[in-house]
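Quick one: examine this chain and its backbone structure tokens and tell me how the chain folds. Here goes:
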Amino acid sequence: MPDRAAWRQRLRRLYVGTDPEAVRFQWAFAIVDLVIIGFFILSPVLQDFQAFLWFDYAVAFLLAADLTARAAAALSLRQWLRRPSVWVDFVVLATLLAPLWLANLGFLRILRLWTLSQKGLFWRSLRRRGYQEWEDVGRAAINLVTCLFIITGFIYTAFARPDSGMEGWVDALYFTVATITTTGFGDITLPGTAGKLTSIVTMIVGISLFVRLAQALFRPYKVTFRCPKCALLRHEPDAVHCKACGHLLAIPDEGES
């Protein structure tokens, strides 16, 4: 039992610790994650290769091992299971373990990019290097890219047919970008009522995410610090008092956050 507790404590330190060994482990796994996400993006192009299923199951093994290790490292398994990112990873794992049965849900795998963005590793690195103002921009950009590839995958799965004018995944990506940016060239259109509704949802979601990214890029930078009195989160970097209630703040320096 002590060995098991020590093993879980070591796993917890590797996954959430900030010492050099833990940071190296987290960066190594983040690099593997980025390679896996690249595989997910290219899956529609690679799925005709004979070795595709072997890569698919290898990624499933890595993700299952990661989920098992994170579950063992969690202080409370119940609270860990309540996290949206964990449920997303379970959905991704299901599509990997049953790629033939769940082929139509394969586009959901790109959600792994969103779960990766929920980890603090990248954002802590930005703050240490003095680029903390780019955190909101980075999160907004990742949300936009994730949405772009999810919609592309859905459109490719649901509408790509030999006689549809959409010959491949690149055509689906082209249509999605043209729709999200409201360019609307019209050379590729989605047929029927379902196609029109999909185009409407794509435009609404895309415009919303573009506005969010623009806000993150151009609005004045503010630090995130919860006011002890009124709970206001956003403050000027040099704020001494909360602008909402006047409470004296003790915002730490960026190097301490």
Summary: Strands lie at 223-224, 234-235. The radius of gyration is 22 Å. The first helix runs from residue 2 to 16. The chain has three domains: 1-119, 130-221, 223-257.
